């Protein structure tokens, strides 16, 4: 028996590599071989996974974070299918973890620093992948656009700078280079499911502020609508609208999981396996939006393989996606606080124990 292990990171607790490693060790104790595939969906951890899958070089760039503070950004320079490629993780530069979100930060934060890193990468690479998950900005990608156009650093969130600033925005020239945003959500640019109403609250936005942001984003959408209607593109609302910014810059959006799975040749690896273990930190309404567990499960079903998901937490009902899995299990072994559950040692011990128990049950049914 051979088990494919492809678990996304448990955000704030353990990386994909660590979780996969714990599961593979548990399988080894049972005398079962494994295929270890660290995986991501375009969110945090994407750069670490792809930089280990593709030999290359780390390039450092002087840039700024989402509040304009000087930092060292970086990208991974490699070759994929003989094409010189740069890989950037937006969360490394603009991550929500860099700030304590509140009303002031959401009105100050912008994506200009990410644009500076993209500019540096484009000078060396023919194509640039940008993973969009985990961002703390809510600027519609306008900061990124300003950097790519050579404009000055905005004094605050550019969505709040009014019609004069908006009138100065233009399409940048990528000089024939390919810019690809990897999205981990399918949200449009504006509206009830747009980037402001969809994710702005977790970035410090109040109801009043979010209404203001959505109205400003709608003005951006209408300005460029004759050339490109951002709401017609799935994922344009990813990363506080940076997905839309990439489209306005002449780039394209691709589903993060599908792209990364293809780059890692996951489909081919599954063909040689008998059982699949996937998972993520929390199963919720976002799981159905192109996240790792659902993507892995769909590929597993293609090969008619049994597939289970291990998560840190799950709701009582996972209506709409449960039929993709043979089982969805929480790794928790007892009542526990969120703080204690997030401890890495606890997470890795629990997922190893769950692996042993689930696989033993599966094997007993095969006798």
From TrEMBL:
InterPro entries: Glyc_kinase_flavodox-like_fold (IPR018193), Glycerate_kinase (IPR004381), Glycerate_kinase_RE-like (IPR018197), Glycerate_kinase_sf (IPR036129). It holds the Pfam family Gly_kinase. GO terms for molecular function: glycerate kinase activity. Keywords: Kinase, Transferase. GO terms for biological process: organic acid phosphorylation. The keyword Transferase applies. The keyword Transferase applies. It comes from the Bacteria. Belongs to the glycerate kinase type-1 family. NCBIfam families: glycerate kinase (TIGR00045). This is Glycerate kinase.
């Amino acid at each position: 028996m051979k088990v494919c292990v492809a678990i996304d990171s448990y955000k704030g607790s353990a990386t994909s590599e660590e979780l996969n490693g714990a599961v593979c060790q548990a399988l080894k104790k049972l005398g079962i071989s494994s295929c270890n595939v660290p995986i991501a969906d375009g969110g945090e951890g994407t750069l670490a996974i792809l930089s280990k899958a593709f030999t290359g070089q780390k390039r450092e760039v002087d840039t700024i974070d989402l509040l304009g503070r000087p930092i060292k950004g970086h990208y991974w320079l490699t070759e994929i299918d003989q094409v010189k490629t740069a890989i950037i993780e937006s969360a490394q530069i603009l991550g929500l973890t860099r700030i304590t979100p509140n009303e002031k930060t959401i009105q100050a934060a912008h994506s200009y620093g990410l644009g500076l890193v993209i500019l540096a990468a484009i000078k060396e690479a023919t194509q640039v992948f940008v993973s969009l998950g985990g961002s703390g900005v809510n600027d519609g990608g306008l900061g990124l656009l300003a950097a790519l156009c050579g404009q000055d650093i905005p004094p605050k969130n550019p969505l709040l700078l009014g019609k004069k600033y908006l009138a100065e925005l233009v399409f940048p020239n990528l000089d024939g280079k390919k810019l690809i945003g990897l999205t981990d959500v399918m949200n449009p640019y504006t509206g009830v499911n747009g980037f402001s109403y969809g994710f702005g609250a977790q970035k410090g936005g109040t109801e009043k502020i979010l209404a203001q942001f959505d109205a400003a984003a709608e003005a951006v959408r209408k300005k460029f609508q004759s050339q490109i209607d951002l709401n017609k593109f799935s994922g344009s609302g990813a990363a506080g609208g940076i997905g839309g910014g990439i489209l306005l810059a002449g780039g394209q959006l691709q589903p993060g999981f599908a792209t990364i799975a293809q780059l890692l040749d996951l489909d081919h690896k599954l063909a040689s396996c008998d059982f699949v273990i996937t998972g993520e930190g929390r199963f919720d309404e976002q799981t159905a939006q192109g996240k790792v567990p659902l993507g892995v499960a769909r590929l597993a079903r293609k090969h008619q393989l049994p597939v289970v998901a291990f998560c840190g937490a799950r709701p009582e009902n996972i209506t709409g996606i449960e039929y993709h899995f043979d089982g969805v299990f929480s790794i928790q072994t007892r009542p526990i606080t969120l703080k204690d559950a997030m401890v890495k040692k606890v997470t890795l011990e629990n997922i190893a124990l769950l692996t042993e128990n689930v696989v033993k049950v599966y094997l007993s049914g095969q006798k």
